[in-house]
Amino acid sequence: MKVLAAMSGGVDSAVAAARAVAAGHEVIGVHLALSTNPATLRTGSRGCCSREDAGDARRVADMLGIPFYVWDFAERFREDVIDDFVASYAAGETPNPCLRCNEKIKFEALLERGIEMGYDAVATGHYARLAREVDADGATRTVLRRAVDEAKDQSYVLGVLTPEQLEHSMFPLGDSLKPDVRAEAEAAGFTVASKPDSHDICFIPSGDTQAFLGAKIGLRPGAMVDASTGEELGTHDGVHGFTIGQRKGLGLERPAPDGKPRYVTSIDAESGTVTVGGSEHLTVDGLVADRPYWLADDAIRETDCEVQVRAHGNVVPARLVRVDGAEGEEFHLDLGEPLRGVAPGQAAVIYLPDADHGDRVLGSATIRDTRSVAVSA
Predict the structure, then answer these.
(1) Which PANTHER family has this protein been placed in (predicted)?
(2) Known catalytic residue: 101?
């Protein structure tokens, strides 16, 4: 099989490429240039896509004896990931840029070009597993499951892939533990064996998201009000500086009357209002999500499941109902256990528990609204 190995310059993608070669596939390595100024996008374990990363990926490809290319997707990354990220925050949402990058860049733009060039699959260093399943009609499909390494599982950020994209994907690390991957890289002589994993938002290597957004969006003053009384407590410079559940950096001059911490409980981008209240206002027992991806038998319209709303967040039982809304299909989720601090813009990834084979991803959607326990009680 002809395989295009996406090589970020890190240890995971290096070992994934090596395993694809060892399996006998015809492999080329591709590093994605996602920044118009690559020299600025790595500070230690922060950031990615720097010249350092491209060089690390090239050295591994040379050791594996495979062709290596750098493909410039910087403009598409800016439009589909960075601009989307900024627009979402300006709208009072809390997006996950890693999902958007997987959706639009690594498994859309990259895969499209690879297939056009005659390649069969894209191999990445994501920790997730693929399996084959036969449905009630006898049709066979590729399904996405959690990785063996629960601490590194990345099925959440892959929940935006389509069934067609899964058919052309390879995740060679899905059955491995991260320490074993590093040991394998060291045994192969890869210099990236001890390279730290990148974290936070790759295109904000400083880690200062508020400063980044402020430079992009500018000042948009609004009011900060109390969730219980409606009293105006102060002003702010823009809703992009806040997210649901935020406790620090609220800029309030006086504490709550009961002395307890205040949290951001809702954001209205249209009016510029940021509402704050006690922790009891953060608990929700229902979600409405739109822009869905469904990876299971389409005949399933309602099912018991589990839902995860953050990349490494808690998983809770839920009842899913797929509903035809005014602007397309929606997921309505009644939670078996309440969640705290859920924000519009986050992804709700739906799992079917399976103790024998690893939880299976049924689909995902973008959270549009929540139902508060405090309000509904």
Answers:
(1) MITOCHONDRIAL TRNA-SPECIFIC 2-THIOURIDYLASE 1, TRNA 5-METHYLAMINOMETHYL-2-THIOURIDYLATE -METHYLTRANSFERASE
(2) yes
